Amino acid sequence: MVDDIEVVVSHSERTTLRIGDMFLKVDADAERLEAEAKAMARAPIPTPLILWQQRSVLALAALPGRPLGRLGEPSTQSATAWEATGAAIRKLHDAPLPPWVGQGAEEIAAKLDEECDWLVSNGLLPGGVVKRSRRVAAAALRPWTPAFIHGDLQIAHVFIDENDQVAGVLDWSEAAQGDALYDIATLTLGHPEHLDDLIAGYGSSVDVDVIRGWWSVRSLLAARWLIEHGFDPDAPGCEFDVLRSQG
Q1: pLDDT computed for residue 247 by the predictor
Q2: Distances from the Cα of 10 to the Cαs of 14, 105, 230, in angstroms?
Q3: Most Cβ neighbours (<10 Å): which of 108, 123, 138, 148?
Q4: How many percent of the chain have pLDDT more than 70?
């Protein structure tokens, strides 16, 4: 008997299917999929077991536990789980650098200006909100010491086991050398109430203005892609709410 096939996420770039306890990731960019597999092999924290791999398909074993949370919804995980996540991310950031270099501050700033113009010209957000958010974003665009970052560390990509420990981290396609605070900001996007717990587990102080800056950067840059791929950045608690709250 064949298990039912569940479409987890699907858009023009990638599709993820679940078949029983196996996930199939189909990626139009075979090199990106190969880089994801290599990043998981390098990561010093739990990742999904790779069952098999073809040029454009990666088969992964399902992780145990439950997601740390989801954007737009309250996280029901404990402070201990958030602290454990912080400790795991610190271990990743302290690991030897991968060979892939992520975007630099100047490149991000140029894209940011383009996306801000697009948001205003299409009437998606008031000009005042966009201008203020761009000003907040400037704090993140400073020189940083490169770290091994996940690069897309959304709250739904971290799974927590029954002991409030990290069971595994998903979706490593954006892993590269980058700013460690970007990962921390991505994890707490829309969940600022858990930032202190995450930092407690991380084990060192962080510049909260930079975290806020990355919240703005990610929200501003993601909007067009989300809209064009059928997602809604204006859903409650999501990217546009984050930008509106940055007053």
Answers
A1: 63
A2: 6, 30, 10
A3: 148
A4: 98
Pairing between β-strand 147-149 and β-strand 176-178 as defined by DSSP bridges: antiparallel
Residue-wise pLDDT tens digits, 107-136: 999 999 999 999 999 999 999 999 999 999
Q: What is the pLDDT of residue 176?
A: 96
Burial class for 100, CB neighbours closer than 10 Å (0-12, 13-18, 19+):
middle
| Residue type for position 45 | I
Domains of the chain: 64-244 (3.90.1200.10)
**What pLDDT is stored for residue 142 in this prediction?**
95
Token duo for residue 156:
């739904």
> Residues with Cβ < 8 Å from 208, sequence gap 6 or more?
195
Kindly report the three-state secondary structure assignment for every residue of the chain.
CCCCEEEEEECCCEEEEEECCEEEEEECCHHHHHHHHHHHHHCCCCCCCEEEECCCEEEEECCCCEECCCCCCCCCCCHHHHHHHHHHHHHHHCCCCCCCECCCHHHHHHHHHHHHHHHHHCCCCCHHHHHHHHHHHHHHCCCCCCEEECCCCCHHHEEECCCCCEEEECCCCCCEEECHHHHHHHHHCCCHHHHHHHHHHHCCCCCHHHHHHHHHHHHHHHHHHHHHCCCCCCCCCCHHHHHHCCC
Tell me the pTM.
Answer: 0.93
Rounded (5°) CA angle 81-16-163 = 15
**Which token pair is 161?**
């086991």
**Tell me: the pLDDT tens digits for 14-29?**
888 888 899 899 998 8
Per the prediction, the chain carries an average pLDDT of: 93
Determine how many CB atoms are found less than 10 A away from the CB of residue 129: 18
Structure-token pair, residue 38? 């290599």
